Structure formats: structure tokens, C-alpha cells
Amino acid sequence: MSILNFYDLRKQYDLPAADARVIFSDLGFRVENIDGEIKVDTRRSNLPSKYGVDVDYLIKHAVLEYRRLLSIENTLQGKFMEFDVEGEDIKGRVGVSTISEDQIRPVSPSLKIKPNTPTRQPIVRAAAPPAPVVAAPAPDALQLLAGALVEAQRASAPADPLLPQKQLLEAAQAGFHITSEQLGQLLGMSRSTIASKKSGFIKLGFRYEKVKEGNSTLWKVALQS
């Protein structure tokens, strides 16, 4: 499958034209007018061969992710959501491959835009290879998949570079006494390295004083004066 009909794909997934163009462009597909019809040329994209998936699967995964997150970062990185599920009612593979296109479509009518009527008959698609036999998805497979997509994007989001200083400031303002292990996590040091430090050492603009609590040695954090 190399050239698809733009109208057919929009109708298949209830996609507004703008959203469809964003998704296909990000996938590396070319949307162009060929003989008076808008077609989607998938031949320029290396993603199907790179990740070993077919174009149909790639589009389905991208549409589902876009519906939930308004981006397709996980699709572009090959983080495809497929799960091995074994329980009382299901045993097998669950994911985008087992979710029907109807489940990917928007629920609210306000999110649907009917595609314009095509000016010519859509092209005839080549017959797709038979799909592998898979177990029917569990009732909550779509929720499981959507949740995993959200978590995957959160995991790939860049960390706050000032997070250690913010947490140290919070500890100083609240007057917390923290353990050597906790302080080591904030400063990127091992527990033993922190334990060997002398009281009053300075790092990241804060001073760390040892505090005895019974048989334990804790640390009090204060802004460097």
C-alpha cells in the first residue's frame, strides 16, 4: 500500500482535514493533488520499514494517540502500545492491533466534521494481507491503551532542571530534617558520600548542618548566607 485516498482516510476515522494533514505530515506522508483527487503518498516515509509495521497500523496508532494527546510522539518513536493480557476472560495480545476503528472515533458529535464530497471515485486499494488471529480485546482495552499513551508521554517529557533546588528550598523553608539518603538523592550523591561530609558543607547554594536525633544523624538545609 503506497498511495491512499485522503477523503477515504478522513471518512474512515472521522478526521477534520486540518487534523488529518497534521498527522500525515508528521508521519512523513505527502498529501498532494493527483489527477484532481487529494491523495496520501506514504512511500516517502521510512517509519513502516523502520519499525516493522504496516501503514494501516501506523495510521491507526497515530490517530488514537492524536485523539488522546494531540500529538503522535510515541508513534514517531516506535513506542507502540501492545499488551500481553492473561485473565479469566482473555488471554492474548491486546492493543492498537485489536482495537476497532469505531473505538478510535470521537464520541462527541461536535468533534466530527463531515468530509467534503469527493469529486471523483476513490482509488481501489490493494488487498491487505490477512490479519493475524488475535484474541478479542478486553472491555477496558481502550482505556488501558489510552492510559499507557499518556504515561509514556509523561515519561518522555524533559525533567525540570531546577527541581533539586526547588526541593531543597522547600526543605529549608519548612525546616525539614532529612536523611543522608534523601539528601544524596537531591544532590546526586551516594548515601555514604553524604554521610562522610562535614557539617556545614555547601552545595547548590545551600548549607547543610548535621542534626542529632537520638542515635540518628540528619541534615538541616538552609540557604547560604
**How helix-rich are the residues, as a percent range?**
25-40%
Question: Approximately what portion of the residues adopt beta-strand conformation?
Answer: 15-25%
| Mean pLDDT rating | 77
Q: Helical region count? A: 10
Overall shape: it is: elongated
The figure for the number of domains is: 2
Low-confidence stretches: 108-115, 119-126, 133-139
Question: What is the terminal-to-terminal distance?
Answer: 68 Å
Tally of DSSP β-strands: 9
What does the main sheet amount to? 4 strands, antiparallel
Order of helices and strands: EHHEEHHHEEHHHEHHEEE
Class computed from helices, strands and strand pairing = alpha+beta
Rg calc:
27 Å
What is the spatial order of strands in the main beta sheet? 6-9-8-7
Question: In a few lines, what is going on in this structure?
Answer:
By secondary structure, the chain is of the alpha+beta class. The chain has helices at 6-13, 17-26, 47-51, 55-69, 73-76, 101-104, 141-156, 163-174, 180-187, 191-196, and strands at residues 3-5, 30-34, 37-41, 82-86, 91-95, 177-178, 201-203, 206-213, 216-223. The protein has a four-stranded antiparallel beta sheet. Strands 1-3-2 form a three-stranded antiparallel beta sheet. Strands 4-5 form a two-stranded antiparallel sheet.
